[in-house]
Amino acid sequence: MPTYKGIEFRRDTTPWGYAQQYENLNQGIFTVSTASHGGIFIPFCMLHCIPLDQQEWAEKWSGSKQWYEEDCCVASVIVAFPNLFSSSALESAKKIIAEYFPAFDFGPLEYWQATQEVKA
Hints:
By secondary structure, the chain is an alpha+beta fold. The chain has helices spanning 52-62, 74-80, 87-100, 107-119, and strands spanning 3-4, 7-8, 21-26, 29-33, 38-41, 67-69. The protein has a 4-stranded antiparallel sheet. The chain has a two-stranded antiparallel ribbon with strand order 1-2. Helix 2 packs across helix 3. The N and C termini lie far apart (34 Å).
């Protein structure tokens, strides 16, 4: 069973069935694919990075605040952890978040990205 610093990921416990493929992106954040669907798992210790309304959105579609389905809810993960994804994935995610959460403030995200680019 894959683990990351004590975070256990079970392939048989996704909302969409058995995970045929999975990858630890970083810090116990796993991307999974099943025969029918897929998404991203966020460990409890990282949920504070995702706004509560977006956690509830994920729970509506997956049954858990820890699972973000691949069609729309995954945008919350991409915006919260932009360093784990491509710039094109981030741009798409921002459009999805803007559509579903028009009051979301991208200001801190833009600042964070700018400071990360300077450090790189």
